[in-house]
Write a structure and sequence with these properties.
alpha/beta; Rossmann fold; OB fold (Dihydrolipoamide Acetyltransferase, E2P); eight-stranded mixed sheet; seven-stranded mixed sheet
């Protein structure tokens, strides 16, 4: 992939830009094997699941800079000034055209970009999520509620101008800090969820729901998880850090068509509500509970398989030791950080990593997703 912004040193976020995609995949696989080699010597690697090297992102996290009437969308430079990246080649078709229109939409709404150096203005970020059906969620991150009324008054014009919009919200982030969003969110549209069709599962994203950045690779990740889990054929499964239910809902039915006992645990009540609604729509009996996945006690009879999909810091020693001491026969670990994965595997010597696969969610960068199946010795 060639990028004018990278070549001009305006944006260097894609650290592997200019490296052939085949070499990127090979380097990521080598790094993964090296990081896990001493803790997973018996690990059998499947071939990497590749991505489109460009046009793959379903999200745009746009930092707003510039001034009233002349906004920039992209990133900030070292001095806090806006760097416009509206033509970035990473956005998937459909999302890319909307990103290019965002500066004009900001101007039409009369929104004032936040000036980091002067600590003036209001609009800090515009966050977009694009679904496989071509629908959009748009979130405006403001410093204060001062311009909330302006967005509300012009909502109909915005929806008419961007007919793909399904969900529009305003998030308040008052702190002068490099923080993407705040805790206060107001949804302005009647619809509060963005449906995301992934394989045969219709997930539902609310404004602060987590979903993978690369829909096609996420679909491959869930298909692989389902295949490995079906080979183990557990009667019961617990999905920790379940989010909106991606792993749980993909694995709620056994290979013979009978229901599998599935419980998802997630700290976000909003995500749990979405997972429950998706399960009801699918007609499956998966259960979801609000709770801290890292503190889940696996009370009573342990499940036949546990799925963990933690943030970058990993599951940590407490949960790792609990899993290691349990009698759970299998653990499926999905990780976006090979180093925290290696650390966690060291804390679970009774569980042997037997299968692994790299999923390239983030081409042009050194980041990756790894799926690992562990079996009890």
């Amino acid at each position: 992939m060639q990028c004018d912004y990278f070549d001009a040193h305006r944006c260097r976020s894609c650290s592997l830009m200019g490296t052939t995609y085949a070499d990127q995949l090979a380097a990521k696989l080598e790094r993964s094997a090296l990081a896990l080699g001493h803790v997973a010597p018996e690990l059998e690697w499947s071939s990497p699941f590749s991505s489109q090297p460009q046009g793959f992102r379903n999200k745009a996290k746009l930092v707003v800079g510039g001034m009233r009437g002349q906004p920039t969308v992209g990133i900030l430079d070292r001095d806090g000034r806006g760097v416009d990246l509206r033509d970035c080649g990473l956005y998937e078709p459909g999302l890319d055209t909307v990103v290019r229109r965002v500066p004009a939409l900001i101007t039409e709404l009369g929104l004032v970009p936040y000036d980091v150096a002067r600590r003036t203005g209001e609009l800090k970020h515009v966050l977009l999520t694009h679904s496989p059906a071509g629908e959009l969620m748009m979130r405006f991150v403001l410093r204060s509620p001062g311009q909330l009324g302006r967005i509300r008054r012009h909502l109909r014009d915005l929806l008419d101008s961007v007919p793909q919009l399904r969900v529009v919200s305003v998030n308040l982030q008052p702190a002068h800090a490099a923080v993407l969003e705040g805790a206060d969110e107001t949804v302005l549209t009647e619809q509060v969820e963005l449906p995301m069709q992934v394989n045969d599962v219709r997930l539902r994203l609310r404004t602060r729901s987590f979903f993978q950045t690369n829909t096609a690779v996420a679909a491959g990740l869930y298909r692989q998880a389902r295949e490995w889990i079906d080979e183990c054929d557990p009667a019961s499964l617990v999905d920790l850090y379940c989010g909106v239910g991606g792993f749980a809902l993909h694995t709620s039915v056994r290979p013979d068509g009978s229901p599998r006992s599935v419980l998802g645990v997630e700290v976000s009540g909003e995500a749990v509500d979405s997972a429950r609604a998706a399960a009801a729509e699918m007609g499956v009996d998966a259960r979801f509970e609000v709770g801290d996945a890292s503190l889940h006690l696996l009370q009573g009879r342990p499940p036949d398989l546990v799925v963990v999909n933690p943030p970058r810091r990993g599951i940590g020693p407490e949960l790792a030791h609990r899993l290691d001491r349990s009698s759970v026969p299998h653990v499926l670990y999905s990780s976006c950080n090979v180093d925290s994965l290696a650390y966690d595997l060291q804390q679970m010597p009774s569980l042997v990593p037997t299968r692994g696969r790299l999923f390239d969610m983030f081409p042009q960068t050194g980041h990756m997703e790894l799926l690992t199946l562990l079996a009890r010795r």
